[in-house]
Amino acid sequence: MSTPLLTTKLFAPPAPPGRQQRPRHTARQAEGTLISAPPGFGKTCLAADWLARQTAARSAWLSLDAGDNDPVRFWRYLTAAIQTTGLDLGQAAADMLAAPQPPPLEAVVTSLLNDLAENAPALALVLDDYHLITNPAIHDSLSFLLDHLPPQAHLCLLTREDPPLALARRRGRGQVIEVRAADLRFSDEEVGLFLNQSMGLDLSAADAATLAARTEGWIVGLQMAAISLQGRADRHALIQSFAGDDRYIADYLIEEVLQRQPAPIQDFLLKTSVLERLCAPLCDALLDDGAAARTADGHAAADVGRSPSADVLQKLERANLFLVPLDNRREWYRYHHLFAELLHQRLLLGAGPQVVAGLHQRAGAWLAGRGWYHEAVRHYQQAGQPAEAARLAVRACGDFFARGELRELTTLVKALPLDSLAPYPELLVAYAWAALGVGDAEAAAGALEVVEGQLGVSADQLSADLPRRTWSGLVELLVIRAQLENGRGRMDRVLALLERVQPYLDRPDADLPGLHNPPANLRPVAAFNRELAHETEGRTAVAVAAYREAAGRAEQYQNPYLISFCAGRLGFNLTLQGQLRAAAQVLAHELERLEKQGNRQSPLASIALTGLGTVDYERGDQPTARRRLELGYQLAQPWRNAEGLRAGALGLAGLRLAAGDLSGSLAILEEAAELCRRHASAVSADLEAFRAVVLARAGRLAEAGHWASRRMGA
Questions:
Q1: Do the bridges between strand 123-128 and strand 153-159 make them parallel or antiparallel, or are there none, so unpaired?
Q2: Beta bridge partners of 125
Q3: Which of 53, 502, 641, 657 is 20 to 30 A from 161, alpha carbon to alpha carbon?
Q4: Which residues on neighbouring strands pair with residue 371, listed in sequence order?
Q5: 252-277 pLDDT, tens digit each
């Protein structure tokens, strides 16, 4: 089950009352792709107005935030935005992204592009606040989308900074119309119309020109000035007293705006400035200790009756006080980003960091109670409470594994300081498993060392005399280390570690809770690694029966990851024995199981796909073999899945070698070896061995001989 999407991000902001139309920009923007300017220049309003004018096109909107730097989350939201148009688009991409282990981004984007090209009428999509996206993988995938966007689709990016999307190349090809700060500044005429008609100030032409000059046509500065001037008899004197550059004018105007508000409104604005998004119940929880306490344990506050904050939010919206509605129901809002930043600065200076930390803590508690863990963890971090963030991560840990979001879990834990994680060894053990799953062996090993330090005893000192929580934790650490050693090809070490822990796995009380897993749950993991070590040492005669038994144990303990690994090794050994039909049945059954769980496009599926591709190759069906091997190899890369990478690379290299493409064969072997090198040296050795064969076929006998000499020396 995927984390629910926040639908308020998919609404274009509605037009504020009395907003001034700017036809000279909307006409040009209709062909534009990039609106890039500093904050407060009206990028969002301009794009929303342009989108509203697209009568011949379906329109979609996505408001981005810092949390969207996860590629899967980014493309889930972008696909959802397109689906708000009512068009039958993007469902295949959405299904891929909802899988516990989504496929490579290029496959997702390709599916979306095919839908747009084949089925879509004219479509206009706006991505707001793209400057918050810093993940290179997202930039690359969006650039791929732009490179292949069908002519009836138009993408508009709103950003404070130029994105790394090959702008120079796109300019040279005439593929981008750019709207910059110089284009967005209000002219003297527009300033006069805005201040006198939209804001009703009735200023003289000289005073309007003074404000235009002092703000350089900066619309947010003009708006703040207009609010501070409303109801003032000394407007001319106030305008003439403005001095300094934009930064100082902004500081002055913020103070003027705040000082004009009643004390309760000032307090509301300042305290709620810590929120990325706000609604009435969340504001109530933030401002009221009782409400905050009721939500801190994860139970929802009673959101019935009239909320005090709802009245305040309506007043702020009516006053045009930099409050942006995020939906059509006027339930969720955000402050203009610059306004929120300045409010937050003043809050920090006036109330102090301790008060600000308390507000972040309350926000985190409320959000956690509703399952928005990522936002909640960020608030706890900003509250200076990394331990609370870690505690919350522990609560969410099972969900991450159930959904297969291993990389998301590792990213979250990495953002927390190490000393905050030490009191939660169970989280560090979970992190080690997740890091191992995505191919980060170094991170997994480092986490185990921290756990040993927290337990106060090393795994080498495992003893039944230790407290249960301690010895069960050390047993799990040793099983993880056995898997690490398996990846490094140290099979004697694997067997020694597993022999040491087996008595603890067989204890009658092994089903009782452990540090992360009950010891009994580790039985199939130990069995799999033991058999893999035996197989690597040449004991393949009993491998088929052993992997069938290990798979049965994995099903008993509901370990979906191990089921896939066992199926892959079983299929591999059956193929070696020439039992191609039996191998194909095992691997096809595993694919069916993954498909029923929504994991057909996951890294786990790479194992079965590359195994089936190998069977196809042995049967002489090269087109089917190539298709399955290529897909399986791609799916293996996000987790650096050693099984999928090895089988995929060896199969594809064999196909290229058979076709006489020696350089292509070498290239894929070298690529896969690099992906595996840090965490699966045994796999790298297999790839190196085949590389020597290819070198010999290419006539590069000295290089092939060098590899053989090194292996004999080892």
A1: parallel
A2: 60, 155
A3: 53
A4: none
A5: 456 666 777 788 988 999 999 999 89
Tokens of 644: 């999928």
Phi, psi of 293 (to 5 degrees): -65, -35
For 643-684, what is each residue's pLDDT tens digit? Answer: 788 888 888 888 888 888 888 888 888 888 777 765 555 556
- Band of pLDDT at residue 244, cut at 50, 70 and 90: very low
Share of the chain above pLDDT 90, in %: 16
**Structure letter (DSSP) for residue 461:** G
Query: Measured between alpha carbons, how far is 128 from 455 in angstroms, rounded to an integer?
Result: 47
Contact 633/606 with Cβ under 8 angstroms? yes
**Residue 100: is it exposed, middle or buried by C-beta count within 10 angstroms (0-12/13-18/19+)?**
buried
**CA-to-CA dists, residue 254 to 217, 246, 251, 513, 593, angstroms:** 17, 12, 5, 56, 59
DSSP-assigned letters across all residues of 582-642: HHHHHHHHHHHHHHHTT-TTSTTHHHHHHHHHHHHHHHT-HHHHHHHHHHHHHHHTTTT-H
For residues 685 and 91, give the distance between their C-alpha atoms in angstroms, rounded to a whole number.
41
The model's confidence at residue 2, banded by pLDDT at 50, 70 and 90, is low
DSSP lists the bridge partners of residue 536 as none
Residue 282 has pLDDT above 70, yes or no: yes
Read off the pLDDT of each residue in 548-552 and give the average, rounded to a whole number. Answer: 78
Instruction: Tally Cβ neighbours within 10 Å of residue 576.
Output: 14
User: For residue 564, which of 545, 579, 552, 551 has the smallest C-alpha distance?
Assistant: 551
Write the DSSP assignment of 660-686 as a string of letters: T-HHHHHHHHHHHHHHHTTT-HHHHHH
Which strands form 332-335's sheet, in the order they lie side by side? Answer: 278-279, 332-335, 323-325
CB neighbour list of residue 70: distance below 8 Å, 6 or more residues apart: 135, 408, 411
Q: What would the pLDDT profile of 89-125 be if each residue is shown by its tens digit?
A: 889 999 999 887 788 899 999 999 999 888 768 889 9
Q: Please give the pLDDT value at position 560.
A: 77
Phi/psi at 465 (5° precision):
-80, -15
The mean pLDDT of the chain is 80
Residue 11 zone, left/alpha/beta (φ > 0; ψ -120 to 50; rest): beta
Q: And the tokens for 627?
A: 């298709």
Q: In this structure, what DSSP letter does residue 19 have?
A: P
Amino acid at 93: A
Render the burial of 145-175: b for 16+ CB within 10 Å, e for the rest. Answer: beeebeeebbbbbbbbeebebbbeebeeeee
